[in-house]
Amino acid sequence: MERQQQIAESLRSKTWNEKLQWGLDTKNLGNSLYQQKKFTEAINAYQDCLLALDLGSTADQQEAAQRQLQIPAVLNLAACMLATKKYHRCKALCNVVLDLEPQSLKAIFRRALANFHLGELEEATQDLQRAYAMCGGRRPCETDEEFSATQQNLKEKLTTKSHSLLSTNSEKEQPTGVFCNAEDREKFLRKVNYYLHAISQQQTRYAKACQNMFSEGCLESSGGSGTQACKTGKLQLERVPNQVSSMFPLTLFKCSKCSFCARRAEKVE
């Protein structure tokens, strides 16, 4: 804190241009530290560079400060939070960027990864699908067969090394951070596709686990004989023993599309 106070004091006498340049130099230092995986030092550098943020007295100065310094620094801080597994902070930082630049591809994707690791699978899916569409993907895969075919197709496109420019209009309604060459774009689409497929598989596993859990609970409550409802998976919620709710964390119920999970979550809450 004392160090940051000293930095803020030293910046007071600088002009708007000098503050911006100092902030950019400090941000570049943070980039170098990040590439060396020195995440704590990189976080300090990015936080320091934001001390130089001066929105100026004109609209042009405000836009320049936000686009050149504030948005990149906050995005890079979010990347550091992902790397250090501070997912809630990463999500909050991405939201800050999206308030300023609603079509920021990096913010959308990093928020998706944060939600993925937090178990907020529905929110992660929405952001991943949005990122996929922003990069020109026609439709994310839904089955294992589609996933394999799509990944192979993207891999074949990469081998051709064909390049094409995408729109990088700086207007807020246009996507920003979209890749300008086909190779980077296809690599990104493969990554998005990977996470969408992982979420789909995880939700399927959750649903099966929950259905088995309810079936086992019913068998226990009926002395092992079971009922037709248990065998078909259509277990009445009120017949589930109380200890079943402690067998799995509540987050498991919320993260699945399984009807058993949704009903159980409502009852527990």
From TrEMBL:
Keywords of this entry: Repeat, TPR repeat
Native source species: Toxoplasma gondii TgCatPRC2
Domain of life of the native organism: Eukaryota
Name of the protein: Tetratricopeptide repeat-containing protein
SMART domains the UniProt entry points to: TPR (SM00028)
Pfam family, one: TPR_9
InterPro entries listed in its UniProt record: AIP/AIPL1/TTC9, TPR-like_helical_dom_sf, TPR_rpt
